[in-house]
Each structure stands twice: as structure tokens, then as C-alpha cells.
Specification:
- The complex is a heterodimer of chains A (about 150) and B (about 160).
- Chain A has about 150 residues and is an alpha/beta fold.
- In chain A, about 30% of the residues lie in helices and about 20% in strands.
- Chain A contains 4 helices and 7 strands, in the order βαββαβαβαββ.
- Chain A has a 7-stranded parallel sheet with strand order 3-2-1-4-5-6-7, sandwiched between helices.
- In chain A, helix 2 packs across helix 3.
- Chain A is globular, with a radius of gyration of 14 Å.
- The model of chain A has no long low-confidence stretch (mean pLDDT about 95).
- In chain B, helix 1 packs parallel to helix 5.
- Chain B has a 6-stranded parallel sheet, sandwiched between helices.
- Chain B is α/β, with parallel strands linked by helices.
- The model of chain B has no long low-confidence stretch (mean pLDDT about 95).
- Chain B is built from 6 helices and 6 strands, in the order βαββαβαβαβαα.
- Chain B is globular and about 60 Å long.
- Classes of the chains: A alpha/beta (about 150), B alpha/beta (about 160).
- At the A-B interface, helix 1 of A face helix 3, helix 4 and helix 6 of B.
């Protein structure tokens, strides 16, 4: 199966790379917001998109359009992200084209789920938190990106 | 060498200013990755833009990392066996969008994974104490992967939908 794994540059990306062994045996495609990150995931296809955050509505729209085009051509069976806004856009586009979707909230959100995570909660197949206190019937806690 | 990094976001001149002051009082090279900084450093070498390779090289060469409380930098330090001291960005001071760095810093301090300081004085004391050692040991070391329980939960779901 084809898995598209998305994370913005920075902490989100560092966390995503620590999940790779869960995707072993499948075709894994990485997507991030910095062009030169491809070097860090050699052996896998890598795609970059422009970064956007929720204070930049036009940028978000452009990123969403770019992700829609990518997902329509890649046709991933699963879209998984550790955030942030571009990851949420990727999950939405994935949902639109029939992919399964997983949101893993960043370990940096120790007191409440991120705003993007709360939106993902309304449609994603699985939503994970990395802090046991934040788990409930819909938000899964099953460990974190640390080891 | 001590490497100071503020992560990929907005400036963090409170950290840069105190580290420049500390750099003037110790006999060790301090290199700082800054962005959009208005502060002019007297004692530190500053780098405005670093490629991932240059960043990794400085990170690798450093015997101590000083940074904001971003999880990317914290995890990178723990993976690479580097001791790290953090000063959380404070949203009230315009250093971040919300106070999540304070919350994560407290959690990481509770786990005893990293050195957490909450103001410039604490950072000053901690750095002066640590640099006295010939070999600064990290408080905790991480493997390269997420926890087994998170990985197997993801694998289970993937198997279910395959």
C-alpha cells in the first residue's frame, strides 16, 4: 500500500522521522515544507510544498490546492501527519480522495490538543495525542515519539 | 564549543542577549544560530542562515546545546547524545503564539530528560555550572525510533486497512 507521510519543517518533521519503522513494507512518500529535506529521507520519494499557517489564509488555500493536486496524482491509501497546518490540509485532501487518515498531535502539545488536531478530530480515521492526560474515547494515547 | 539555537521560527533575543553575556565570561567558543535578531553580539559568533548540513555539523561539534524549548531541538539533542539546556519562549513576551513551550519544558524537566531554566539568571547559573566539567553528560539518551507502543498501534491500523 501507498503511504503519504507529511510534516512541516522543524519539530513536526523530527517526530515524523521517528515513526518510519511503522510503515515498513509499504511504499512510503514523504512531504514537507523545505526543499532540501529530501536528503534526509534518501530511498524514498520526497515532495515539498510551500509552508503556511493559520494567520495566512491565502497561503493556506494555495497549500491546500497544491496538496489536492499531489494527492490526486499520488493516490495514497493512507495519509499520516504529525502536523502542522499543511499536514491538516493533506489529511483533508486525502479524505476528499478516499485515503485513510491519521493525525498524530505533536508532543509539544502537552496541555491541550492543537487547534489543527481538534479539526482533524472531526473527520480523521485516527487521532493520537502523545500525553495520557489528553486521551479520551476519540483521542488515542499509545505512547509517544520518544523511546 | 557551545552551540546556541533558537529553532526555525521567530527571533528570540532574550536568549541571544544572555548567551552573549555568558560567552564573555567563559573561556569557550560559543556559536549561535539566530534569525531576524536585532541584538548585536559582542562575544558570540552568529549565523543567520544555516543549511541542514551546516546545522548538523555545528550540533555534532558542540559539547553543550543551549536552545529554546522546541521539541525538534530537544529530540535532536537526545538522539545525538548531547547535553542540552533550554529556556522556554514566553508568549506573554511576544516570543511565541502560545505558552506551549513552558508546558513542554515542565514535562521534560519532570522526566529529567533535559536541563530546564525558566529565566536568564537560572540559565546563567546552569551554563556556568555545566561548563566547569571536562565532559558534560546528557541527562537522557534516546534511540532512533518512537516508543514501541505507538509504532505497534500504527502498524495494527495499517494492517487492518491493507
Amino acid at each position: 500500500m501507498k503511504i503519504l507521510a507529511i510534516a512541516s519543517a522543524g519539530g513536526h518533521w523530527v517526530q515524523l522521522l521517528r515513526l518510519e519503522s511503522a510503515f515498513k513494507g509499504h511504499e512510503l512518500i514523504y512531504l514537507s515544507t523545505k526543499k532540501d529535506f529530501g536528503k534526509m529521507v534518501e530511498g524514498h520519494q520526497f515532495i515539498s510544498v510551500a509552508d503556511a499557517n493559520r494567520n495566512d489564509k491565502l497561503g493556506l488555500l494555495k497549500t491546500f490546492k497544491a496538496l489536492k493536486a499531489i494527492i490526486r496524482s499520488v493516490k495514497p491509501d493512507l495519509v499520516v501527519t504529525t502536523g502542522a497546518a499543511p499536514g491538516l490540509m493533506g489529511l483533508m485532501a486525502g479524505k476528499l480522495y478516499g485515503s485513510k487518515t491519521i493525525w498524530i498531535d505533536s508532543i509539544a502539545n502537552a496541555e491541550k490538543l492543537s487547534m489543527s488536531g481538534q479539526i482533524a478530530l472531526t473527520f480523521a480515521d485516527k487521532v493520537y495525542t502523545q500525553w495520557p492526560d489528553l486521551a479520551n474515547k476519540k483521542i488515542i494515547y499509545s505512547g509517544n515519539v520518544l523511546s | 564549543m557551545i552551540f546556541v539555537t533558537i529553532g526555525t521560527q521567530e527571533p528570540f533575543d532574550r536568549l541571544i542577549a544572555i548567551m552573549d553575556e555568558i560567552a564573555g565570561s567563559i573561556d569557550e567558543e560559543v556559536i549561535a544560530q539566530v534569525s531576524n535578531s536585532k541584538f548585536v553580539c559582542k562575544n558570540m559568533v552568529t549565523k543567520d542562515f544555516l543549511s541542514p548540513t551546516e546545522f548538523d555539523d555545528l550540533f555534532f561539534r558542540a559539547r553543550l546545546i543551549i536552545s529554546h524549548a522546541g521539541m525538534g531541538t530537544i529530540i535532536s539533542a537526545l538522539e545525538r547524545n548531547k547535553p542540552i539546556v533550554v529556556l522556554p519562549r514566553i508568549a506573554k513576551l511576544g516570543e511565541h503564539r502560545n505558552e506551549h513551550q513552558l508546558a513542554t519544558a515542565k514535562k521534560m524537566a519532570d522526566l529529567k530528560y533535559i536541563h530546564v531554566t525558566y529565566d536568564e539568571n537560572e540559565l546563567n547559573e546552569k551554563v556556568l555550572e555545566l561548563v566547569k566539567a571536562v565532559d558534560i553528560k546528557p541527562l537522557h539518551v534516546l534511540g532512533k525510533k518512537a516508543s514501541d507502543s505507538l509504532l505497534s498501534s500504527l502498524t495494527d491500523f495499517i494492517t487492518l486497512i491493507s
